[in-house]
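User: Thanks for the earlier help. One more: ATPase dynein-related AAA domain-containing protein. Can you show the sequence and predicted structure together?

Assistant: Of course, both are below.
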Amino acid sequence: AILDGIDRLPPDVANSLQRFVHDRYLDLYDGTRLVPSQHPHSTQAPRSEGPSSSPVVPVHPSFRILALADLPGSGKGTWMTPETSTLFSFHAFPQYTSEAQHRILAARFPALSEETLTQLSSFSDVLGGSAALGATPMSMRQLVRLCRHLATGDSSVSLGAQIENMLLVPFLPGQMQQAMRDAMARAGIRSSPRTATRGSEAPAVALEVDATGESLVVGERIIPRAKPERPELVPNPVFYDNAAHSALMSALVTTHADVGDRALLLIGNQGVGKNRVVDRLLQLLQREREYCQLHRDTTTQ
């Protein structure tokens, strides 16, 4: 198991893993008990110890835990307490330098220009050193995702717009927005006055199904349509096309099909049509939808 970001956990939450890490015992929320492989029932199928007992599941002998965390910060508290320090054997990973980041990104994305890679590395350094932002340098995962977007060759969205979308700059307070754009300017990156998250003035993009019904044509892109195993789950909404929604769906298709991202987050106020846009896009792509409502939404029928 990989525990990524345990430095973000309160110390008492991390300490709750002590019995599992050291002794391989853990009680889960549903009543299931994890026990070590040497437990009397470890050689049997998951079972209950008695008529009213919860299931007992043995932990595989080769099960290991790998935890990832940032270095303990100085002057702002630390997640590493005497109790936490007994959980793992610690190994420090050297900090990436700008030169190392540049070499890795250049090797993975040879189509990107030297100027773009230099700007990204410089912005990451500026971001981590800005006291006004209180942010950390961009992670390698964020840099790789940015480069994947840029490597698609879509010239309609600039580097500045991609950065603002990834860091959710339009949703920051005004002072932090300005500090973020100042950091971009110091790295030689032009900020976008209106990013792709604000599609009200985006140019219209036609989304049409070709004559064969097997492909979706989005501008100059041709996206294969799926053959759903459960056609009854493919949405069939009442939808009226407009420029803003078409541009948004085009951006979603680019992120999903060209860039390869599988987890998308669509942000907007209640009642602006997020569900309708998603339903229409899934209808065009012939993809099933399984809806999971995480909170009360009065606009969902």
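User: Great, one quick takeaway?

Assistant: Residues 243-259 form the longest helix (17 residues).
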